[in-house]
Design goal:
Structural class: alpha+beta
CATH architecture of one domain: 3-Layer(bab) Sandwich
Number of helices: 7
Radius of gyration: 49 Å
Strand content: 15-25%
InterPro entries: Integr_conj_element_PilL
Largest sheet: 3 strands, mixed
Order of helices and strands: HHEEHEHEHEHEEH
Distance between the termini: 180 Å
Strand order of the largest sheet: 4-7-6
Protein name: Integrating conjugative element protein pill, pfgi-1
Length: 206
């Protein structure tokens, strides 16, 4: 009877070999571990315990800027530009007349044409600056601001002073302004020496 059953349901060929049965058991165990790993789900990460919440900044009232529409997609602000508020910020691009006798004063006057400013003619040292020959490197200036063009023509040895009330441009050497202060103290010292103290007379008349 058992022989009939064995013939009807034969055992697999690896069933009679211990090595094959061990390998089949290892493969089955590995398959069960992989199946269990796929079935498990990972837990979501815990949220942060405390989160710092910053208060939203208070919205300021928007500044009103008047504009006017030009065309379909163009809006222009109704306000003066920075160069219109400060004339020294206006952009210039000038070419000097190519004259061999051109001076720094001629270049400064040419740059200041239609700028709203003029040169001052007071100090003798400034007249010496104006009389210097104009370098060839300064025959073309720009594009740059008016202030930079004036400083380029004068050079680093001169300071730029602007009289906005009279709209005049003046240049001064730092050494000249420093030499004025000790000179103003000398007359006071001489005045003290010109008046010696009279000796005091004690006693009555003889």
């Amino acid at each position: 009877m058992f022989q009939d059953a064995e013939l009807m349901c034969p055992s697999p060929p690896w069933f009679h070999h211990p090595e094959r049965r061990l390998l089949a058991g290892v493969l089955g165990l590995l398959w069960s571990v992989l199946a269990a790993g796929c079935a498990t789900t990972t837990a979501p990460p815990p949220p942060d315990a405390f989160e710092e919440v910053l208060a939203a900044p208070e919205s300021e009232a928007p500044e009103y800027i008047p504009v006017v529409r030009y065309g379909r997609y163009t809006l222009v602000e109704l306000a003066p530009t920075a160069a219109q508020r400060d004339l020294l910020l206006q952009t210039i691009d000038v070419s000097m007349p190519e004259d061999a006798r051109a001076t720094v004063g001629d270049g400064l006057r040419h740059v200041l044409k239609r700028s709203g400013y003029s040169l001052c003619q007071t100090a003798h040292a400034v007249i010496e600056l104006y009389a210097l020959p104009l370098p060839a490197a300064h025959l073309h200036l720009g594009p740059m601001t008016l202030r930079d063009a004036l400083l380029t023509l004068a050079g680093p040895a001169w300071e730029l002073h602007v009289d906005d009330r009279a709209r005049q441009i003046c240049f001064e050497r730092p050494a000249d302004s420093a030499a004025i202060e000790p000179a103003s103290e000398s007359p006071a010292a001489e005045a003290v020496q010109t008046f010696p103290l009279e000796p005091s007379v004690s006693g009555g008349q003889p």
